[in-house]
Design goal:
With about 190 residues, the chain is α+β, with helices and mostly antiparallel strands. The protein contains 5 helices and 6 strands, in the order αααββαββαββ. α5 links the parallel β4 and β5. α2 crosses α3. The protein is globular, with a radius of gyration of 18 Å.
Length: about 190
């Protein structure tokens, strides 16, 4: 074996080990969830987020709509992709269903499952979600990804952005999690 192929073989072996180890931790989606399952899972995920993060609860009280993706599945080796389905909630009720899809390229390897919630804080941001045939995060309304440090400083007086995003329930091994560039499209259930 020459010196040039050693790093590639090592990386390939490491990815295979990670995939085997994480395979039982990150379930693969067997099929698309029914409307009732997705409504139930999105409600449970949102309630868990509220229980863990006070700032999410503050935003939820002011939001015009909350789009919850309880499970996004991400995998990659150089090329990567992620996919999941979510429910748009208004006043505690599900009013529409969406899918989230993203692709990426670069130094990446692994498998991961996570969820995220988007809090639409004004009618204009929510209208853009409804009016586009493929709402793309990072294009259009300003999206602020709330991390643990920032989350502690959010109050009803500091809410100034169009959309706030919370990432939660990360499982698996993959360097970094991102939702920028995700394309969100309304689906029928």
């Amino acid at each position: 074996m020459n010196d040039r192929s050693r790093p590639i073989r090592s990386l390939t072996l490491a990815c295979m080990v990670v995939a085997a180890a994480v395979g039982s931790t990150v379930p693969r989606p067997a099929s698309a969830a029914s409307a009732a399952e997705l409504a139930r899972e999105s409600g449970a995920a949102l309630n868990q987020l509220y229980a863990r993060t006070a700032s999410a609860r503050v935003l939820g009280q002011k939001a015009k709509g909350i789009l919850v993706f309880p499970a996004i599945y991400k995998a990659g080796f150089m090329f990567g992709g992620q996919i999941g389905e979510g429910a748009l909630r208004k006043n505690g009720r599900v009013v529409a269903y969406y899918n989230s899809v993203a692709a990426s390229y670069g130094f990446q390897a692994g498998i991961q499952k996570f969820g995220y919630a988007l809090f639409f804080m004004n009618d204009a941001a929510l209208e853009q979600l409804n009016d586009t045939h493929g709402f793309e995060l990072g294009v259009g309304p300003s999206v602020v990804i709330v991390d643990e440090g920032m989350g502690k400083s959010i109050t009803s007086n500091t809410i100034t952005s169009d959309v706030y995003a919370f990432i939660f329930d990360q499982k698996g091994l993959m360097a970094g999690v991102g939702i920028q560039g995700s394309k969100i499209t309304r689906i029928d259930k």
